Amino acid sequence: MRDNGVVAVGPEPLSFDDVIAVARHGAAVRLSDDAVAAMAASRQRVEELAESPVPAYGVSTGFGALATRHIDPALRAQLQRSLVRSHAAGSGPEVETEVVRALMLLRLHTLATGHTGIRPVTAKTLAALISSGITPVVHEYGSLGCSGDLAPLAHVALTLMGEGVVRDASGRLQPAAEALKQAGIEPVELAAKEGLALINGTDGMLGMLVLAIDDLTRLVRTADVSAAMSVEALLGTDRVFAPELQALRPHPGQADSAANMTRVLAGSGIMESHRDPSACTRVQDAYSLRCAPQVAGAARDTIAHAATVATRELASAVDNPAVLADGRVESNGNFHGAPLAYVLDFLAIVAADVASMSERRTDRFLDVARNHGLPAFLADDPGVDSGHMIAQYTQAAVVSEMKRLAVPASVDSIPSSAMQEDHVSMGWSAARKLRRAVDGLARVLAVEVLTAARALDLRAPLKPAPATAAVVEALRETVPAPGPDRFLAPEIESAVRLVADGGVVAAAESVTGPLA
What we know:
Layout: E1 2-3, E2 6-9, H1 16-25, E3 29-31, H2 33-51, H3 76-87, E4 91-94, H4 97-112, H5 120-132, E5 135-136, E6 139-141, H6 150-160, E7 165-167, E8 173-175, H7 176-183, H8 194-199, H9 203-233, H10 243-246, H11 252-265, H12 269-272, H13 287-290, H14 292-314, E9 322-323, E10 329-330, H15 338-366, H16 389-405, H17 427-458, H18 466-476, H19 489-500, H20 503-512
Parallel strand pairs: 2-3
Antiparallel strand pairs: 1-2, 4-6, 5-7, 7-8, 9-10
């Protein structure tokens, strides 16, 4: 829930828009009064357990395989510091700022539910960290996706203690203590259970899932537009996208994709030029043209399933042990990342398949045996010029990489913590490879748009559909019309930016109105 651009965090579920606003657009946050009250009530119960002679996991014991040791009260502050320091064991490249901000927000939400026993002051410090734009340095490796994203979240908790390394709001790398002092944020001395409450969640996996769903929702619309451009420029037919044919197999994503393609192709002079059966001897188009709605549609339905899982997770309070409404503090297994890991893997699979079909359409443009009258490789002077020959190589290399990224991470498990944690989800790994797959899909679709736009220009004087012409016009703002060979890499990157920022879809929608 946003108020004047500030996301209010309370016990109620966060929305996708809340996560995107904080992660990608730098929105500030505040804890609601309900959140503060819920945290204060659960904290009272934790403090009662801390004073009890009966051991309570996470409050007065060690952790994981060391949970059998009862910790003397004089050592419990040290216990929390030691937990965070030892678990902040990440390695490898820095994780992107948007991912770290998402996991910070999602952890704050779980704290705000009142099911972790955290003190309100600790949660308020995390909120201040987010609002100030301070981003703890989190590393690529360290989470097994079970017991939560322990190492990534521990790096955040370390910052709350005034330790470790961060990037400030300007992106400058500096010690956490220095950044907190400059922002006027007092480091926290963690009390009983707080270290565990800060690190025992699936927030990194969930954050990356929400971000991927945002990206893929945009990219499957782009795939509908790029496929329509290819069908048009390759002199294919739009009759196969008719709603009465899609209704015979009533998958909602398929119907939406077919409807989008039909709308994008409306009014095409190129399509009209070969509708007369006497002028067109082809009976059926290749699968990469004819079955585009079936593939992109199935991807849409998979994204919808992933969004359902993410919505449930956004309504969750993941911690162990959890403080229940009746005051009981109970161990549980809700930190296991399997629900997230599975859909993260599913999305990498569909991204790879949509990309694979896109690459096949691009390849058809370059082959004189299949492109129906266009020059070889769409070159200005074939033989002297190579046209888009190597653009397709680049596209094929990305698709090949995406196929490897589609191998599921969630089927793997490496036992840890002296076999106490003997089955893990590897959901963090699934999320990390999905981010690379999403980037790859944007690049593959960009090459298709670039190539299809060139082909549409080469069909002159035949006129493309108003919607596809709008896409070509948007591309031509940074990429010149066909001509002799030019330095192609910058043109590909311009097309990638147009795809990634939604420019392709926006251009088509300037004619069609909102696409499904």
